[in-house]
Amino acid sequence: MKTRNENKSGDQTFWISYADLMAGLMFVFMLIIGAVVVKYVLSQSDLAKLQKDLSEREKQIVSSQGELARKENVIKEIFSNLDRAKSENKELADINRLVNEMLEGVKKEKNELTNLTQTYEINLNDANKTIADLQDRVVQLGQILAQKDEAINELNAKYGDEISKFIALEEDFNKTKDKIKDISSLRSNVISNLRAKLGNKVSIDPSTGVVSLPESILFDTGSYELRDEAKARLKEILQTYFEAILNNEEIAKHIDRIVIEGHTNSVGSYMYNLDLSQKRAYSVLDFIYSWNKDKRLEHYLIASGRSFSDLVMKNGKEDPDASRRIEIKFSISDKESMKEMQDLLERQNQKYSKD
Questions:
Q1: Which residues cross the membrane (predicted)?
Q2: C-alpha 209, offset from chain centre
């Protein structure tokens, strides 16, 4: 019984201990749960606070990033301004250098201007002195000029008519002189006209206009009869010659003579060659009249022989072939101009004889 009671008492003790243990475990578990809950609550509170702090920090970071970006832009702008400032500083340095150079140039020009001013002042003083001297000289010259004007007036009063006559005489003389010049230039015009018409058909002296025809073509040696084979060419030349002179009225009225002139070389006596040269000239003249019926030729044409009085020389020696030739030459009359000059002189003599 006692054992049974003891066992029963032991069981009760066990269950009490077990119940206490379980109660203790439950308490501990509740404490743990409470602690966990508290911890969780605290953790949530801390987490919320932490999240709030993180949010604030994130805002601060975003704000800081914006500020940083702004500062970066400011820094970039500062560097850009620095670069621009450096460039402007270089430009300023260049400008400063140019300004210094210009200043040096201005200083140099100023010095030169100063020197020029000094020189100008010296020259001005000299010029003023010269002007003063010239003014005095002008006054003197004015007095002299007045005296001369007075003398000229006296001379005009005394010799006015003579001066007018002299001026008129000078005008008439100049007119006559111009006409004589026109006559002189007429020869050149005639020569130019002949050369234009005849071309290279014959030899024409450019200074005298003499047309030279070799006798060896026109005549046999010692003969004065024209060769038949030469007549056609001779006619062509002479016809062109007469047309160039006589068909131009301005030229024709001043022509005095057209001379057919025969020349020989020095072979034989002078008289023999004179007779031969004359007969050859007459033969050409007779040939002209055989086909040319222009009555004007009777007033112009003459024929003459010169023997060997006008030889053609070559290198200081006679050229026999060139010396044997027929020359056709013209002479210009200045009778009209000479008559005008004579009339002018007579008029002046009459004026002065009346005075």
A1: 21-42
A2: 43
> 107-345: which CATH number, 3.30.1330.60, 3.40.50.1000, 3.90.550.10, 3.40.920.10?
3.30.1330.60
Give the residue among 214, 178, 190, 182 at the shortest CA–CA distance from 331. 190
**Between the CA atoms of 203, 204, 208 and 209, what dihedral angle is there, to the nearest 10 degrees?**
140
Six-digit token string for 94: 């260049």
Q: pLDDT digit string (tens) for 39-77? A: 777 777 777 777 777 777 778 777 777 777 887 887 888
Domain ranges, ordered by start, for the chain: 107-345
Query: What is the value of pTM for the model shown?
Result: 0.48
Question: Which residue is listed with tokens 């008029």?
Answer: 347
Q: How many C-beta atoms lie closer than 10 Å to residue 262's C-beta?
A: 29
Rounded to an integer, the average pLDDT of 13-23 is 71
Residue 309 dihedral angles phi and psi, to the nearest 5°: -75, -15
Those residues whose C-beta lies under 8 Å from the C-beta of residue 261, and which sit 6 or more positions away, are 281, 303, 304, 305, 306, 326, 327, 328, 329
Strand partners, 326: 213, 262
Residues in the chain: 355
